Amino acid sequence: MRVIAIDGPAGAGKSTVARQVSTATGLRYLDTGAMYRCVALAVQQSSTDAHDAEAVGKIAREVSVVIGRDVSMLNGIDVSTEIRSSEINGIVSIIAAHTPVRDAMREQQRSWIRDQQGGVVEGRDIGTVVFPEAILKVFLTASPEVRAERRVGQSGGDIQAVASSIAERDHLDSTRLDSPLKPSNDSVVVDSSNKTIEEVVAEIVAHFESVDHG
Ligand code: CDP
User: Fold this and answer.
1) Ligand 1: does its nearest atom lie under 6 Å from the Cβ of 92?
2) Structure confidence at residue 71 (pLDDT)
3) Whose CA is nearest to atom 6 of ligand 1?
4) Residue 214 C-alpha to ligand 1 middle, in angstroms?
5) Cα angle at 108 between 105 and 110, to 5 degrees?
6) pLDDT tens per residue across span 46-84
7) 124 within ligand 1 shell (Cβ under 6 A)
8) Is the torsion defined by CA of 7, 157, 172, 174 positive or negative?
């Protein structure tokens, strides 16, 4: 199946790059981070303790999460803006570390990939765990300073606060026991610090074309 897995830390440019790679290749795009963010919002709305793996896992199994290219729906409601708040940034990596949550999300991600017969899928564990058979795996990264600057450029906020929120999330994501953030052995590592979006997209599309056409 034609899957391009794009993993990497916050602010590396995954969403922008993945969208453009999707347009260039004709493969559908899936933002798996938005799925975890929707679960985090449901946890917040129900005043559930984010550290309670069992209760959060139950929520993850019961909610309806539908992620489109531009719109994220939680239980039939458009929550695209709410899931990007600083409160959600503060709890998403806590709820995403729970195995019952990851099990529920992975099942949905794999079924999406089967239905779409492939796709450009971005997240933290796509190439390592969700779809290790992906024909192209990219680990997209950038220096912490560049990532914080990009986030401030996108969503505003104080640079120090944004940098420490990203650092905290990176730490939780890369040290959790279940599918930690790390490059898989067979991934192409792309450091976007000194590259334009266009350069990164062109690099990934060129890799894809060489593997797609054998
Ligand atoms: O856009 P940004 O890089 O800030 O984050 P995101 O891709 O929306 O992901 C939000 C959070 O969801 C991450 O910090 C991870 O804790 C979690 N996540 C995950 O655990 N596994 C994935 N495949 C995708 C996201």
Assistant:
1) yes
2) 97
3) 33
4) 32
5) 110
6) 999 999 999 999 999 999 999 999 999 999 999 999 999
7) yes
8) positive
Alpha-carbon dihedral angle through residues 69, 75, 77, 82, given to the nearest 10 degrees: -80
Alpha-carbon dihedral of residues 50, 52, 54, 58, nearest 10 degrees? -30
Q: Reduced to 3 states, what is the DSSP secondary structure of residue 186? A: coil
- Is the CB of 169 within 6 Å of ligand 1? yes
Q: State the amino acid at position 96 in one-letter form.
A: A
Give me ligand 1 centre to Cα 19, in Å.
16
User: Does ligand 1 lie within 6 Å of residue 123's CB atom?
Assistant: yes
Residue 36 Cβ contacting ligand 1 at under 6 Å: yes
Q: 3-state DSSP call for residue 185?
A: coil
| R_g of the chain computed on alpha carbons | 16
Residue 86, judged by CB atoms within 10 A of its CB (0-12, 13-18, 19+), counts as exposed
Mean pLDDT of the chain: 96
Is the Cβ atom of 91 under 6 angstroms away from ligand 1? no
Cα separation, 96 vs 83, whole angstroms: 14
Give the Å distance between the CA of 92 and the centre of ligand 1. Answer: 7
